[in-house]
UniProtKB/TrEMBL annotation:
This is Nucleoside triphosphate/diphosphate phosphatase. It comes from Lysinibacillus alkalisoli. Has nucleoside phosphatase activity towards nucleoside triphosphates and nucleoside diphosphates. Residues 18-156 form the DUF402 domain. It comes from the Bacteria. Belongs to the Ntdp family. The active site is at R23. It is an enzyme of class 3 (hydrolase). One of its GO terms (molecular function) is ribonucleoside triphosphate phosphatase activity. HAMAP family: Ntdp. Its cofactor is Mg(2+). Mg(2+) 2 binds at D105, D107, D120, E123.
Amino acid sequence: MAMPIEGEIVQIHSYKHNGHIHRVWQETMVLKGTKNIVIGANERTIVTESDGRTWLTREPSICYFHAEHWFNVICMLREDGVYYYCNLSSPFVFDNDTIKYIDYDLDIKVFPDMTYTLLDEDEYEQHKREMAYPEVIDQILKRNVEKLISWIQQRRGPFASDFIDVWTSRYRLQREIKDNNASQ
């Protein structure tokens, strides 16, 4: 499997279980790329929904993807703190300069004080019926909700106290390098 390269600009494609595209983020800069982890950043990037609508992200975000865990985490840097939007999803794959995963509807929103809320349970149940999620997927996702909550409570991975500082610094550095290269 090809791996994304630090500083590379990639797209993010979210699919549904039935294989249909759900959402596309136009540009994300890779800050770290290994076979298991991709950490990226984007700011004011165009997002295209499955119905063709587009919108622009409002704030800088650090994105965390893992090839072994059934979730990904978007860390949104807002003026009043960091908000985390956690998607229960398939592990990512990297293909044709694109990070790809299947979105399984369930989400956890984490607030700056590290309180959290499980979202979209009704949507999950509806899509589980409509798209016939296998029982094994249902079990994996429920285990990963528990794992994700454990990470939040233990401040692991993208929820660790220094995660945002480290990766926003790396993002600023990569942007400077890219800007300097563009002006030469």
